[in-house]
Write the structure tokens for this entry.
Amino acid sequence: MPPLAHAPSPNPTAPRTGAPGTGPSVRRLGPNWYAAVMGTAIVANAGAVLPLTAPGLRTAYQVVWALSALMLLTLLTARAVHWARHHDQARRHLLDPAVAPFYGCLAMALLAVGGGTLAVGRDVLGEPAAVAADTVLWSAGTLIGLVAAAGIPYLMVARHTIPEGSASPVWLLPLVAPMVSAALGPALVPHLPPGQPRETLLLACYAMFGMSLLMTLAVLPLVLGRLFHHGPLPLALTPTLFLVLGPLGQSTTAVNNLADAAPGVVPPSYAHAMSAFAVLYGVPILGFALLWLALAAALVLRAARHGMGFAMTWWGFTFPVGTCVTGAAGLARHTGLAAFDWLTMALFAVLVTAVAVAGTRTAHGLATGRLLAPPRPATA
């Protein structure tokens, strides 16, 4: 199975790098591979907020963060080679409605690694270097995320041909990127000069929270309508149902992190309102996330019984669950309820299991060359 859930239709005029089945090629490296970076980085980010301390845990999170940073550098280099050598294929990715939304993963990979740099990487790099690195990664990820959040919907309207009833959770990927910026931006607020710089960043994060949330509310009914009227997704796409958890968990994380950063930045009445909003918004949204998790898990089990094999879409099991971990941890901080602590640890166990499985299968696919191999020619 190719690394993209839906590979673009072949272009007979495109230059070929080799005969089908001859082996792996960077030509097959799509933007969906950034999901592996996101899924790895979120383990460190989520682990840093766990209500659990034990010898060696912090070191383990640092190792995972370092691995995610190495993966990001490797993938950025490989994708740069892809654009330089296979511009035709890269353009086809942008013009394919099944592939273009994955460009949101680039923004979120930068943001996730940047957040991990400040959360756990500062123990290795030192705080000044960690703040500088996170500032660069957050700024780049936010800029790319905003471009994707506006640009990909534009392409879907103006350039793509989308059959009726083909709505996919993948459509959420470029829309949730600004929400990741809103969730991770508050960590940089204390490192800005007091006064307007801090307040500007805080309110900018709230603005990105709003734009992402409202666009998600517009797209999610389309996804539900597709499921209700056309049945389950194709087997390879079934794991993408977990992507719906992304904006739910990330928005819960965002409102709690913004409330944490508000005191001393905005007037006390605003800070108090933001703290109340974090709970009043976060609890119902996390409740819906758990309901969706149950539905998505049931449909994944159904797909597994029908022969669902491994694809890069399995990384959809990772980052969205990680956002629910950080969201539950934020609610635990603001409510003091032990139930949210237990929920945080249970979801983290699911996250680690998902990353271990997806990572192992991806490493095996790379070692055998299957994930980057051209499609085999059809047999008569």
Notes: The chain has eleven helices and no strands. The chain has a mean pLDDT of 91. Residues 107 and 143 are 8 Å apart (CA to CA).
